[in-house]
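Researcher: I'm comparing several assemblies side by side, and this is the next one on my list. It has 618 residues spread over two chains. Same procedure as the others: predict the full complex and return the structure.
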Amino acid sequence: MSEAQPLYSRRRVCATFAVAGSAALAAPAWSQFRVEITGVGATQLPVAIARFRDEDRAGPNAAIASIIRADLERSGQFRNLDAPGAMDETTVPAMPEWRSRGADALVAGSVSRLADGRWDVRYKVWDVVKGQDLGGQSLPVVTADLRLAAHRIADAIYERLTGDKGVFATRIAYVTRVANRYTLRITDADGEGGQVALTSVEPIISPAWSPDGRELAYVSFEQQKAIVYTQDVSSGQRRPVVNYRGSNSAPAWSPDGRQLVATLSRDGVAQLYAMGRDGSNPRRLTQSSAIDTEAAFTPDGRSLYFVSDRGGGPQIYRMPAAGGGPERVTFSGAYNISPAVSPDGRTLAYISRLGGGTFRLHTMDVASGNIRALSDTNDDESPSFAPNGKLIIYASRAQGRDVLMTTTLDGAIKTRLLSSGVDVREPVWGPFNR
Amino acid sequence: MQRLTQSHPIPLAGLLAALAVLAGCSSPVKINDNAGAPVESRSTAPGGTAGGSAATQPTAQSQVTPVSVDPSAAAGVARVVYFDYDSFAVKDEYRSLIESQAKRLAANRSQRGSVEGHTDERGGREYNLALGQKRAESVVRAMSLLGVQESQLEAVSFGKERPAVQGSDEAAWAKNRRAELKDR
C-alpha cells in the first residue's frame, strides 16, 4: 500500500481533448441513458484494459473489460489503448512491448464459474512505466452483480492510479416522467442496469438515499398531497413516515442515518422538523413566519443548510442541527435554493437565479465564500454530490426535455445523460455503500 | 495550444449489443393499472439478468424491487382561484366564489374538502411546493373567517408539479398560479 502514489504525480501525460456526442448510441432502451461527454483540458492517463479471459461465458452482462474501459473513459481522466492478445491475471506481461504502445498501466483478468454457481472475477493491475505488479483482487459475485464487479474493478483501478476513491460502483436515483406516469428509478452511475423502484400516476419528487444506501426517502403525491415515504429498495417495503396535515416534503437523512429532517406545513407555513427515521417524535427546528425548507446536513451532522425566504426572497442559511439561530450564507442574487454539501463539507452546491428565468448551478467555497458558476444552461435544478466529491449531478433542460448532467467541480468536464422521449429529473447520487 | 478532436475509442458495437440485450431483459415489473389497489409491492428478485440459478444464490447487492402505486384520481368539480405572480393574496374578484363555497361548507359540517395550491413552472420544486402551500392556506383562512371549520378543509400543495396548462409564457403561467377547491 505504500506505493499507492498516483501515477499522475510522477508522469504527466497531457492530452487536450474535446469529445462531443461521441457515444451516440442509436435508440437506447428507455430506461437507459446515453452519455455524452463534453470537456476540454483534461489530463488523461493512457491505460490498456485487456479483454477478461472467458468473460463471454458469463453472458451478455459480463463484458467486464468494456464496462471498465467505459467507466474510466467517462471520468475524463483516462485514455484507453488497444490491448490485443489473450491475457489474464496470471500472465507475465512483456513490459517493453506495453511501454512501446504508450501504456502507463495495464489491466488483465478472468471470469470463472464457482461451484455454488457464482462467478469469480479476478484481475491484476501493472504499472507499465515501473514494470511493477500493483496487485489485484478476486470478486465472487452472482450473475446479477457482474456489472457491479466490473464497476468495482474500475473503482480499484481509478483509486490505484489517481489516489481518489472511484464512484463507478455507486448508484443514482432519479425520477422519469412519460405522459402522466412518474417512475422512481435506480441505475448504476453509468446510467446502465436501470431498475424501477416505484411507479405512480402522481408526481414523485425529492428522493434522498439513506447513508447506508439501502433506503430511499421521497415525496409522493399518490394520496393527493405531499407525503414523505421511505422504501427499502431491495425488498420494496415502503411506508409513509411523515404524513401530517398539509404538505410533508424535502426529506434529509442525518449522516448517522438515525434522523430525518423534513419540511412540514402542519403549523401553517413550511418549517423544518427533526424526527426519528420512522417519523417519530417530530420536533420543530425553525421558528419563522416565512418558508423554511430544503434541509441538507453537513457531513459531520452538526449543522443544517436550508432555504428560507425570511429576508424576502429565498436564500440559503445555516443553523445548528439541534436547533438554534440561523446565519445567512448566500448574499449574491435574489434567489438561491437547493443546497447540497460536498462530502468533505468544504463546498456548497446550489441553484441561483440570474435574473429573468435563468437558474444555474453554482458552488460556494464555504471557508472563503467564493462563488463559481458551473454551467451555462438556464434551467438547472437539484444538485447532488458524488460520494467522492469529484462530480456533481444535477437536472437541467435540453432540446425541450428534462435531462441529467454531471460536472466536475471546476466545470471543465460535463456529461449529459440522455434518455430518448423521457423527462428525467430529481437526481440524487447514492453513497459508496449499496 | 493544440486541440485534438478524438472519436470514441470504446468498442461501441459491444456497448450497443449489451444495451440491446438489456433493453430486452431489464423490464422490471409489469405495471398493473388497478385503481382498487393503491399500492403494489413486489418482493421478488429482479428478473433482468441471465443465469437460472439465482434463486439459490445470495441476494444480489444490485437488487431493486419495484413498487407501483395507482390511486384513483380525486373526483370533484374544481373551483379555482388565480393568483398574481409571487403573491398569496386572494383577489377581490374571487370574493363571491369564496363566500358561496364557505356558505356551502358552513351549512354542512360533515362536508370535507381540500384546497390545492399550485405555482407556475419557474423555480425549484420544493420551494414552489411551499409557495403553493401558502396560496392554499390563504384560501382556507379566508373561508374559515366566513365560518368554515378548520377541520373541514385541508390546505395542501402540488407546487409546480401539476400545471393546469402546458406552456412557458405568461398566459400559461397565469393559469397555473392557482388554488383549487375540491370536495373529499
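Model: For your comparison table: The radius of gyration of chain B is 25 Å.
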